Give the backbone structure.
Amino acid sequence: MPAFSLRPRTPSDEPFVRDLIARWKAEEMGLHELPAEAFHQVDMQIDAMDFGCPGAQSLIIENADGRPTGRAVLHPEASALRVAELILEPRSRGRGIGAAVLTRVMADAQAKGLPLRLSVMAASPARNLYRRLGMAETCRQGPMILMEA
């Protein structure tokens, strides 16, 4: 497994997180970069993930060199540990970092006796990763698929 670390997000991570989410949103929309007028959506998403879920853990994923390469937001619930967000920089995808992060988070949930839950866009390539890690599709809501391990 690739070396990585998870650490709590700090205020100094704001530029990295904002840029990461902006690039991800642009990619999702099929654009090279996000138009300036769409950055309010980025800020709203950051606020919703970091402050809209009581007890949410906003984490930075660092590569072996200690450089930020992604973000995860975990939301502990009474009946499950939910991955509210998992985003990696494009150059870090396909290298096993996402699988390693999810494997660790799944082990943490299992140690607490909780299932791990997340939702994914039906067309997302990440869906295949989640299946390989043993997650099952439990529900479909429009373009979103709920998965659990």
The chain has a mean pLDDT of 89. DSSP finds four helices and seven strands in the chain. The chain has one domain: 4-148.
